[in-house]
């Protein structure tokens, strides 16, 4: 165990403690000193296995201190979602009462919900497209009129100032909404949704307010001319829509439509959020199949076959809805638009094919994309660290966003003004908003493409992470398309004769794939998205080769951009597998303790005291059968959640009330669903002194069959049980089925492979 460099601080209550359970010390059990039957089992303290700990250096506290942000931390503010159904007596009785037709109706309801998710996501995408088009049109009309007015007198400084002011104004409004009303709406939202689907409860990530700020913010960001796209925010928006529609109510508006009540639990909600994310991709790129694969590859941690078809249905409905309403808006009833068509790289390849001897060139482009993507991620990583430490106030965040908008407008204006490779404006008829500075509209030549790639690369890197709603898909594709076309042009210049295979548009597509793949490390889903968006199936194989090469090369230097930001937010994210060198660790060494246990029939006052204790804030409690006159904890007989106990206290489900027939009705599963997901805090529930002396029978409400592992189970085996099943608590028992510890998400997430082997992260309030 000498190769572990750091140990995490776990804390509980009381003064009794047991050092790290490494097999050399015996687990000690202690009863709560205030009475009752709550047991604290063991303790994991901060231990450096390479040095001796003196009493003065012992860092055990009642609660970890809040320390400055560091990428080597794991945040305590994130809780886990309950993706494992609690099969208590209420649940089993309801399932037994349901007929075959009832289950068929539930399945039909799932399809209806997915259809609604796709429809509403498509409407939101349509609204964003129309709003951005209108605001951008107004902005460019003003700039164009100003340029035409002042060009005649030989001065363009006023036009430059106007452009910068308009962009800064749009971005300021969007940044104000994000910074002061809903900070979780910043960025693309993909890292947050990825964490949610992984089982992490990210605060406020799927709220209605977040959706409104997200949509408003992305409109302002794109209209403000930032180096951003709307694709990432569309994925987040679709996920929020799914989380709301699937519950049949709005907790923000306090409106309950009394529908879809069966789906008010984390397990069902997770599947619909996966459908919403896929619908967002489909609406952004016009790629239904790509949306399904994106949700599978980049988002969802849990999957099944029926979910695939429902998600595909939601994606299809989203694409059709967007195209249908955009066609009506543009007054072209017979022609559906294709908003996802990527045309910025001029992929004019209707009759262009590739040759086998070009495969090495594509692989080289993939390697270039991997290196550039890694450089992008490294620069953005350090920039984000700087922002976390020094630009954490909302006013500073808004000012930074306005500064980036002004700089972006200035750089864009300067590049257009100083560009010499322009063609007459009259020959260009495909541009909706042609902007003429001087005598022509700029096209492509090697110098322009190289300068654009360099400037836009750093602008996009600076922009991602601002306190605005924005995505990185389109900027990455645009950067890659620029240097990819430059690559193709250089090939044409280096070779003699007219070569059909050296078509710049083909290499623009490969460059776009390489750059985006090098940044976000997507492979299969991005291949299908690009194929669907460009409408060209021929390049499926080379695109896949490019993306695989970009991922392999990029992963050698740094993780993907989304994983980098998840790490910077100190989220306890569980990857697909446990660290490769962790087989020698056992459940006894990774579990957290002490474990607070309840008896099957427990005193109400004891339950209230435990739930009210802010120093622990546990969310799961093993239920035990206590042996008479024994100081050791009893044998495990179930597991009950904090949320369930709060509902029981709220409805006064006490043994004495049941005997005296004071309870008007028997508690049902509907009562728990009505309280989901915002269960009331324990402080809002009044329990009188007489009620504290009552007893509560947990038999009917606890999960009698929780997942357990022996204390000698290896960490990879614990991981394989915990992550695929979406568990929140995994009870560790000894040979006699007595509770010795509890494995939670943070216990597993704190182990990772570092530069010096297997490391453990510190826990802190960040």
From TrEMBL:
It is found in: Membrane. Residues 702-760 form the CBS domain. Residues 1-26 are annotated as: Disordered. The chain crosses the membrane at residues 111-136, 156-181, 211-229, 272-295, 307-329, 359-383, 395-418, 438-459, 466-487, 507-531, 538-558. The keyword Transmembrane applies. GO terms for cellular component: lysosomal membrane. Keywords: CBS domain, Chloride, Ion transport, Membrane, Repeat, Transmembrane, Transmembrane helix, Transport. InterPro entries: CBS_dom (IPR000644), CBS_dom_sf (IPR046342), CIC-7 (IPR002249), Cl-channel/antiporter (IPR051280), Cl-channel_core (IPR014743), ClC (IPR001807). GO terms for molecular function: chloride channel activity; chloride:proton antiporter activity. Belongs to the chloride channel (TC 2.A.49) family. PANTHER family: CHLORIDE CHANNEL PROTEIN CLC FAMILY MEMBER (PTHR11689), H(+)_CL(-) EXCHANGE TRANSPORTER 7 (PTHR11689:SF136). This is Chloride channel protein. The lineage of its organism: Eukaryota, Metazoa, Chordata, Craniata, Vertebrata.
